[in-house]
Amino acid sequence: MDPNRLHAEIAEVVRRGNCSGCGACALLDKDVVLELADNGFIRPRIGASGPSDTDPTALAEFRQSCPGVSVQAQRPVGTRRHDFLGPIVSIWEAYALDEDIRFKGSSGGTLTALNEWLIATGQIDSVVVAAASDSNPAKTETSSVRTRADIVRATGSRYAPTASAAAADMDNRASAVVGKPCEVAALRALAKSRDQQSPLLLSFFCAGVPSQHATESLIHDLGVDDGAEVATVRYRGHGWPGDFYVEDAHGNSVRTSYDVSWGKHLGPAVQQRCKLCPDGVGESADISAGDFWRTDSSGYPDFTDQDGLSVLIARTRRGEDVIRRAAEEGVIAISAIDPDAVADVQPFQVVRRATLLGRMAGSRLAGHAAPRYRGFRLWRLSLRSPLRTLRAMAGTFRRARRW
């Protein structure tokens, strides 16, 4: 295979604005380097290490696995499909029984509790996690870790660019990856293309990846001087949903609510590919987790501080086995719930999927080619509310002309 062909197709995904920064392409070619681009998002760059020894199958694998090219909805054995939540073997309200993990977690601390237990009991030997950078806590780094201390240090969401797929060991089934939906979709597709078992794939509900610049701007707007040495940056956790919290090297701290940090600063700064995402709920994972919000009198999620609760979805039999055994061993508390009750408290995910076909059409009318999505029932969902679909198409068309 001519490596230049692979490099050209990677570059084309980036040029079209369809790159999610997942990092999977770096698993296919050692010349692909991931870096923070000028726009504050992680993007692949072709290095200059000399003649490439790219595997001849890499181009086909890229076309099958890159979320900027295509995403295939999964149909694992033994699942039923929910229009907005994807494949389900079982679905649970859950929280970590370790009170410290539950407190520090973004919702119920369930993914941290599961990873800590899996490592401690030798069921996995490593897990890919995202955590604050040691050198600059305002930035986020992905690494494969093997100790409880490193797993707990990664507790809590990081609303910032990561490339977790790039750190996966695809040949080690006794490993795990915690990643965004696009990252686990890429790894699942890559494993299928190679006809191999993937690592244990864990994901979470995602509303999009904000630019790194949004974090830096928010820190500045909270009154932290640009030259100050930052010791801690926390997006959520330490209560549910928890505040955006910054502490400098002298112990001075500032904070703002999740509603303000996400709603006014981070959410509006998500990358283009996220605005056309078919899967914000981790459909390709073995287990996915999200906030099981309580709601106010109008049915809107209540962001006032309370004890964290997660929704855990077993999407494969492997995932269900992990959840049930963890509950039996006192790692997490679980209670079966109705998937429609979860959809009711995740209005963003519901509306995003219901209007996706319209937004894709608007993007294409404005001259921007979108990735191919198969199996998500987008036509059926759009026909349930055709007027809303048309409004989404028109709004996206107007915005896309400025991209």
Structural notes for this entry:
- The chain is α/β, with parallel strands linked by helices and 403 residues long.
- The protein folds into three domains: 3-72, Alpha-Beta Plaits (2-Layer Sandwich); 80-211 and 269-348, Aspartate Aminotransferase, domain 2, CATH 3.40.640; 355-400, no CATH class.
- Helix content is 33%, strand content 20%.
- The chain has 14 helices and 17 strands.
- β12 and β13 (253-256) form a beta hairpin.
- The longest helix has 15 residues, at 386-400.
- It is globular.
Helices, strands, pairings?
Layout (H helix, E strand, L loop, with lengths): L2 H13 L16 E5 L5 E5 L11 H8 L4 E3 L7 E3 L3 E3 L1 E7 L2 H6 L5 H11 L5 E7 L7 E6 L2 H6 L21 E4 L2 H13 L6 E5 L7 H10 L8 E5 L9 E5 L4 E4 L1 H9 L20 E5 L18 E5 L2 H12 L3 E5 L2 H6 L2 H8 L1 H10 L6 E3 L3 H7 L1 H15 L3
Parallel strand pairs: 3-17, 7-9, 9-10, 10-14
Antiparallel strand pairs: 1-2, 4-5, 6-15, 6-16, 7-8, 11-12, 12-13, 14-15
The fraction of residues in strands falls at 15-25%
pLDDT averaged over residues: 94
CATH architecture of the largest domain: 3-Layer(aba) Sandwich
Any idea what the radius of gyration is? 20 Å
Stated plainly, the CATH topology of the largest domain is called: Aspartate Aminotransferase, domain 2
Number of alpha- plus pi-helical segments: 14
Helix content range: 25-40%
Runs with pLDDT <50, length 5+? none
Number of strands: 17
Question: What is the approximate shape?
Answer: globular
Task: Compute the number of structural domains.
Answer: 3
Q: How are the strands of the largest sheet arranged?
A: 8-7-9-10-14-15-6-16
Distance between the termini: 33 Å
The biggest beta sheet is recorded as: 8 strands, mixed
Instruction: Label the structural class.
Output: alpha/beta
Broad CATH class of the largest domain? Alpha Beta
